[in-house]
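hey m, so remember when u said the tokens were messed up on ur end? i reran from scratch. heres the input so u can diff it against urs
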Amino acid sequence: MKILVVTQYFYPEDFKINDAVEHLLSSGHEVRVLTAFPNYPNGSFFEGYGLFDKYPKYFKGARIYRAPIFPRKKNSISLILNYLSFPLSARIYSFKIKKEFSPDVVLGFQLSPIWSMLPAVFLRRRFKIPFVLWCLDLWPESYLSNFSYRNKIIDRWVKRSSERIYKSANTLAVTTKSFGELLAKATGRKSKEIHHLPNWAEDSYLNPPKDSFRFNNESFNIVFAGNLGESQGLDLVLKAARETVNTNIFWHLYGDGRYEGKLRKEAEALKISNLVFHGRVTIHKLPSIYREANALLLTLKPGQGYSTTMPGKFAGYLTSGTPILSNIQGELRKIIETNGLGLSFNNEKELVNQVFELKSILPDDLEKIKVNCRNYYDNHFSKPRVLCDLEKVLIHAKK
């Protein structure tokens, strides 16, 4: 089967679609990828991937087409230009790909923005090619939660354009059941018609390298790993760190992003010495960091869009068996509380209280949390199972 993947984000950027493409290739399918020039999350083009560089044209045997875009940089105007440039330039490549490749099905890997799926919508409408949309970031909810500026006309347009794109897909797949319920309502489909494809953990989490990484044994270490953006709601971590500055509790941020500079400046101005910025680390180092931590943070800015979100790092967190602290509402909160995976909080005061509660937990109870986390991962986030389900969805859509 000939499969065209449309995604604004692809290797060397670190996203699940890389694993999906590799699996589809190993299963004997012919795959090509229409994507952008890599610049996530730091906002600048990766070294060797500038518009005029001789960058790699293949990934594991899949031909890659890179559409020119504006880099994200670290300001709102650049981000908007980034969001708009990919669908416009990628549409031009759509004609070339259709002529050279003539795909049997198009797989859209949808993060933000929703308009990154417009090239797939074009191929669906112009050439009647079946279109499977795999939604990892629900719109317009993500937009409404992430952008503070409100304008009724713009908000209405974003909502309508998002619904039109979702309705244009032959098949919808989502990472959470909450996403499925909202998309069913927006598109007029039944929830059971929308496929559930949860995020999985990378292989390095299941077979972590043996290294000598250690935190200070006298400290209680709380770790957040990932994009340091506004939508992660890290202001409350800053406030919680300030509340615990005279204790042995240390807060570790691994990653980078558009909000990192602001957080560093505030931490320095307020003399928050127990908030440590480590910068971006390779994915192979994270499993050991997670296992050595006393708690792992899952935070997002409050809002309807984020109450239905299940961050990709959740699966990696589970493999470590380390207790999870999360402020995310909805489905994820229910999963954490029902299955004994950690503790929930709503604000920085509750976060500090939950940290002190974790510090007092007995070793036997910590072991129970570890077992619960690993069992939940094995039963719900198995990578081979999810990728096989994705392949079945694509095969069914082609018929």
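this time it looks ok to me. The CA atoms of residues 148 and 313 lie 25 Å apart. if urs says something different then somethings off w ur setup not the seq
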